[in-house]
Structures are given as structure tokens and as C-alpha cells.
Amino acid sequence: MSKETALAEIRKQIMWNRLLSVVEEQAQTLIRTAFSTSVREAGDLSAGVFDTTGRMLAQAVTGTPGHVNAMAASVGFFLEKFPIDTMREGDVFITNDPWLGTGHLHDFTVVTPTFLNGSVVALFASTSHVVDVGGRGFGPDGRQVYEEGVCVPIMHLAHAGVMNQSLLEMVRANVREPVQVEGDLYSLAACNETGSRRLVAMMAEFDMETLTELADFVIERSHQAMLDEIAKLPKGTYRNKMRIDGYEKEVDLVAALTVKEDGIEVDFEGTSGVSTYGINVPLTYTQAYASFGVRCIIGGKVPNNAGSLSAVRVTAPEGCLLNAPHPCAVAARHAIGQMLPDVVLGCLEPALEGGVPAEGTSCLWNPMLLGGHGLVGDADYGSATPFAINVFHAGGTGARIGKDGLSATAFPSGVRNTPVEVTETISPLIVWRKEYREDSGGAGRYRGGLGQVMEISHLEGAPFAISAMFDRCIHPPRGRQGGANGMIGKLRQDDGTMMRGKGRQPIPAGRKLIMEMPGGGGLGDAFARPLEEVAADVRSGFVSPEEARRSYGVIVRVDGHLDEAASLKLRSSAAAE
Question: What is the pTM (predicted TM-score) of this model?
Fold first, then answer.
């Protein structure tokens, strides 16, 4: 390589890094200006920059895989409706169509063209989850998408710099939290504007008239980097199957992953058919999380863009749960879709010498909590404060290669837990308890991450309702390589009344809602876990003395100290049996 060529390569790499900084600032603007807690506190969003053909060039690190990877496909739909040559400065476009965006009506995607010297040079896109879109409210109870809220087709949010007041008025009239939702739409437009300004400044600094050369460099390098990583895997087809709770019946997620010279193909042939409730998954969301599952292990250091994504191709038969056609109900598509990385990791396990992490809770435990007239069954809500709030929480992840699982951590979505203080500030709820769930992580050489226990009631003593979208209440996260399963989740009231893992259900006045979230599966033989590590788990409250004895063969005295002699004897006796 000549000196001139090397300098050109370095220059492009610098511009690429700068582009990543641009989209990260775009995402941070969205977080700072968002109204809803799901974005501001939990980080349920995505942000990215695209070239004029709709190829994603860079995504913000801040955000969720489901949003980012589905948004990567959605910009193409915007261009079909509004070609580049029809766009004007100040235009902003929007949709929440599940099949053209990120899979359900609660996610709005906004696309903004960036102009330089009168021509479009790029597109910025962003997505965020809003608290309400009308209809039944966020939950899995709908039977068709029409029941789940207002659907905005791809259209102008702003036209030549003037906001579409007719659209905003329609949205305000159809949602329970009009100020929050309208504010979030403005925040989406604002973050794209920030991205556009920063990109124009960058292009001026580097004396660029178009992004074409940089875009080709980014995409070609990323695609080849992914192929180089895939080439290290043994060729062949690997299969895995996972049975999960579903809604009206249990469902099977079935995958075949094929490693080829030109990439990886994941096919979900054999997966259960569509549900009659709102847990169905549009194909774009299936592709988003299945490809993320591959990227967790293969090519994780390669930036996420159209080039790296194109090396992983995901298909599912139309009419199955993972390729649900319109007008299937899809509001809780995340409860199923977020299981897919674990399914894909199970396929990859035999292809990788070191194995893969154990299964985790995967699906978020993010209850939609509501109070108001007609929302609490036959109970009288009276004059209590009406509210609607979506709070994000998580169980444990599976044990990792060489490490324990993470406790109360959202994988694969990556969103953060909503702070208790925020929940109590913006709603008439009080959180009495939020703590790790002892013994919930599966035993193993590496222990599964712990779930958490939360106890919630209405501050004013009124009834309230939960719209539950939880899984792993029947089928636990599975351990790997001899590790034990994690503990299943439970939803109940403080008087012992058990509740379903999915669907809207009332909590009577004076009662408390208790959520016991699942723990992750363990990895490897529990008797191979060092005695002192188990004793430390007991002292930390992660593992009970009874569980230490039963699953690990370790005896911890009342004072918290390890009884090494008794433990070694117990392990020897168990091994002999």
C-alpha cells in the first residue's frame, strides 16, 4: 500500500469514527428531550444515519437491538413512499406501522433528510417507545392490530418546516397521555435535527460534498469483516428449539442456522403458527433480534450497519408466530421476539469450542400499570388519580463463559430498569420492595444471574390494573453444559392470589402486586464451583444456605463462614452416589 493510499484509508477511518460520534449525540438529544420514562430513564430508543439509498451507515451505541435493526429496514419503506427528489428542506416523516417500522404501534419512527447546498446528502432516523397509542392500551389482549391503537401510515410530521398540526391533533385525541406522546414526537424530530447539523458541520470540516465514498467504504469494510469472522466457523447447519409460555397456549420457536461461505442464514421453519392474541411478531422484528443473537458471538466488534447486517439473513414462513401478517395483533411482540437471541445462541453452541451463555429471562418484565374509569374491571375507581405508566424491569441473564450471569439486567434489549423514584413521582403508586430474588439463578460452575422481587400498591388505596406481557412463568431459562435451569417467574397479589403472566388483570383496592422475576440458567457443573465462591454467594444473599447444600454441596455455618471439611465430605459422598 502506498503512502498516499494509507493516508486516504486513515482519513476515511477518522470520518467513520466521527460519524459514530454524530449518531451518539443524536441519541443523547433524544434522551434529554424525551417525555416518556421508557426513553428518558430506560433508553428504549434507536438512532442512526443512512445514505440516500437507505443503507444504514452508523447507529448509536445507545439504544436497543430491536429498534436499531428493525429501523435499518424501515428507512427503505420511507423512500418508497417519498423518493429523495420529492423531499424538501424542513421535511420530517413519521410512521408507527408495525410492518413498516419496529413491530408494534407503540414505536414511532421518524426520518429526516439532511440537506447540503440544496441537495439531500443523508437521512437521519430515530425510534422511541411512547407510553400510549390509544386502543386497549399497551398489552397482549388485542385480537387484531386495529384494537391496539392509532396507526399512522408513512406521512409528513413536518412539511417544509411546518409541523403537521392535523396529525398531532389526531394523536392527542386518541391517547391517554397526550402531553407525553406529543412531546416524544417533537423529541424524535429534535434528535434528527441535531444529527443533521452535526453531519453538515463534519462534511464542511472534511470538505465533503456527498457521503457516497465514505458510505461505500463503511459498508464494504463491515461486510468483509463479518465474512472473515464467519469463515472461522465450521460450515454446516445447526438446529435448536425452545418451548415458551405463549398466551393461549405454549409455543415452540424452532431455528436452523446455516454457516455458508457468503454469510449465515437463520430459518425459523417449524415455529408455531400465529397467536390469536397480541404476541405475534412482524418479520422485521424477528430479523432484528435473530441477527443480534448472531452478532453477540460472531463479529461483535464489527460496527452495526448495512454491511455487517447483510451478512446475516433471517427468514420465517409467513403465517408463523415470527412472520405474522397484517392484521394480526402485535403489541407485545417483544415478549416473543426477545427470546430469539437465546434460540440462535443454542444453534451456535455446537459450532463454538467455548460454548455460549446459558439462557436468561430474555423477555422484559415491563408492566403497563393503569388506573382510571373502566380500567380496573368492575371495581369503582372513584376520585383516585388516573394514570398510565410503562415501567421497565428485568430478570437475570444466563451464566456467561467464564463469568456468572448478570442480575436484574435486560438482555438482549439492553434497556435500563426504571428508577423507583421516577415511578413514584409520575404516578400514584408506591413501591414497597425491590430486591434480588434469592436462589433464582440456576446453579452451575458459573451461576445464573438473579431475578428481582418487586411489591407495588396504589398510594391512594384504590384498585389498579396491570397489563402483563411476561414469559418464563411456565418454562424456565435453561442451563447449559450441566448447569441448572433458572427459576421461573411468578405474578401474584400479597394475599397469595396467583395471576397470569400475560393479559390485563385488576389488583383490588388495598392489595399489593408482587412480581417475582425469573433468574438465568447456570453454566457447567455446580460442584466445580469453588467452595469459597458459594460461601460468598450465601453471605451476599444470592444463594440460601439450603440451596448451597442442595445444589453445590457446600455447607455454610450460621455465622456465614464456610465449613470446608464438611463441604468436601458432602461433595465426595454425592460424587460416589
Answer: 0.94
